[in-house]
Design goal:
Elements lengths: L11 H6 L1 E5 L4 H4 L5 H4 L4 H9 L8 H10 L4 E7 L26 H10 L3 E7 L22 H5 L4 H17 L6 E5 L15 H4 L1 H11 L4 E2 L25 E2 L2 E2 L3 E5 L16 H13 L3 E6 L9 H17 L7 E2 L8 E6 L2 E6 L6 E5 L5 E6 L7 E4 L17 E5 L11 E6 L1
Helix pairs in contact: 5-6, 5-12, 8-10
């Protein structure tokens, strides 16, 4: 079993809890067509200010959000305090581009932290390194004004040092004004991305070493992701996104703590007309696939401009909640198994409890190579009903089995009908 690289942050709770809620919420939510809308459509600051002028999430109820996350089986949350657009969800003293200056007029972050903490979830802050609004953020290939004919000239009046002071100052606000913060989720670095002569930004531009040192001093034990462009050993966890790793994530060929970040649809921000919403099977299998490879999964909700989770998000959250209420112990506290699973199945494991997740329900038998004589008992996890375990060398008349099996193979005898759950699981208690 892999022992990931040890890092300064405390990941012990993280790798136990396994499942979190990402929340992307900002001015882009009003556009309702992706959080990168200002970049994608090269929207001017003046036109984008319409969203600031009309930002008023009058139905915002973080206690409802927190209940939805808890009921979905999510154990921690990460909220965008500021996304690339530069808009801040708290009453920052370092900018006017903040929620308290919109028609809504109130800080959203303290109520959020209080509500989720009250439901027992760990608190994470996403914070964008990129800032499309700040007057001293140099225009680059990730900026909405990347194609402006005067971009190079404009950059002569932009002082990256002033922006870095702002960036570090706001991170200090976030880590000193909201109590214990468990995760800091920075996004993102692109040191090698040069666009039309506009250089990228990485550890040197962000002054990442100084920033991370401050973070760890202010919040001992906090875990920080890998997007500050620092060498291995600085990040507490790695963050593959929008694809499914097929094995334990490794850096320089060493296993690391990792968290896959995914969306219910394709967009992180609220996207009204998007149709690529994942099926219940995809949602549950993504969680299982991730834990079976030793990782965490954080699934994203993009709240509406009114401050609600829309019906599609609530449906997806209910899929997770329904499945995890019956199958949670095959996820929480589990990791990659020492055994290889049979076809169309995944294993997760927690000590002597091995969980067989069956993605394609077979007719009557599943063959577990290498497990003969190692299984004490087995049961369907959703209802606790026994599953018979047969061994090639035990008291079983193999004429009834479709084909002979090797001596080290155990055979599970399953009901003909698939149980009425998205992904059935057999809990195997090892000798
Ligand atoms: C990508 C997206 C960004 C999102 C992040 C979450 O970087 O571009 O909008 O916040 O993923 O992981």
């Amino acid at each position: 079993m892999f022992k990931p690289v040890v890092t300064p942050g405390d990941t012990s709770w993280f790798v136990r809890d396994r499942f979190g809620m990402f929340i992307h919420w900002g001015l882009y939510s009003l556009a309702a067509r992706h959080e990168w809308v200002k970049y994608n459509e090269e929207i001017s600051d003046e036109r984008y200010s319409y969203y600031f002028e009309h930002y008023n999430p009058d139905r915002y109820d973080p206690k409802a959000w927190a209940r939805d996350a808890r009921d979905a089986g999510m154990k921690y949350t990460v909220l965008t305090t500021k996304h690339h657009e530069g808009f801040c969800l708290w009453d920052s003293q370092l900018t006017d581009y903040k929620i308290t200056n919109t028609p809504y007029g109130k800080d959203a972050l303290h109520p959020f932290v209080d509500a989720f903490r009250a439901e027992g979830l760990r608190i994470g802050f996403y914070h964008s390194l990129i800032d499309w609004h700040h007057p001293h953020f140099p225009i680059d290939g990730q900026h909405p004004m990347r194609n402006h004919p005067d971009a190079q000239e404009m950059n002569k009046h932009r002082d990256m040092g002033k922006y870095v002071e702002y960036l570090h100052g706001q991170v200090r606000e976030l880590l000193t004004e909201f109590g214990k913060i468990d995760i800091l989720w920075f996004d993102f670095s692109y040191p090698d991305f040069v666009y039309r002569g506009l250089p990228g930004k990485g550890r040197n531009e962000w002054q990442s070493e100084k920033l991370l040192k401050m973070v760890r001093e202010l919040q001992p034990g906090i875990i920080v992701n890998n997007r500050l462009n620092l060498p291995k050993g600085n990040a507490d966890f790695y963050t593959p996104e929008q694809y499914q790793p097929r094995s334990w994530v490794r850096v320089d060929d060493e296993p690391v703590v990792w968290e896959a970040c995914q969306t219910f649809s394709g967009s992180w921000g609220y996207y009204r007309d998007e149709e690529t919403w994942k099926s219940p099977e995809q949602l549950v299998q993504m969680l299982i696939n991730t834990v079976a490879c030793g990782g965490n999964l954080i699934m994203n909700v993009g709240p509406t401009p009114r401050g609600t989770f829309d019906d599609r998000s609530l449906h997806a959250l209910n899929v997770y909640g329904d499945w995890l209420r019956a199958h949670g112990r095959s996820i929480y506290g589990c990791t990659q198994s020492e055994f290889a699973p049979p076809q169309d199945c995944r294993f997760t494991q927690n000590g002597n409890r091995l969980y067989l997740h069956i993605f394609n329900w077979p007719f009557r038998f599943i063959y577990l190579d290498g497990l003969a004589g190692k299984i004490r008992y087995a049961q369907l996890l959703h209802d606790g009903s026994e599953v018979f375990v047969k061994s090639a060398l035990r008291d079983y008349n193999y004429e009834a089995v479709a084909q002979p099996v090797s001596a080290d193979t155990a055979v599970l005898e399953l009901p003909v009908r698939k149980p009425n759950v998205v992904v059935p699981v057999v809990e195997i208690i090892l000798e």
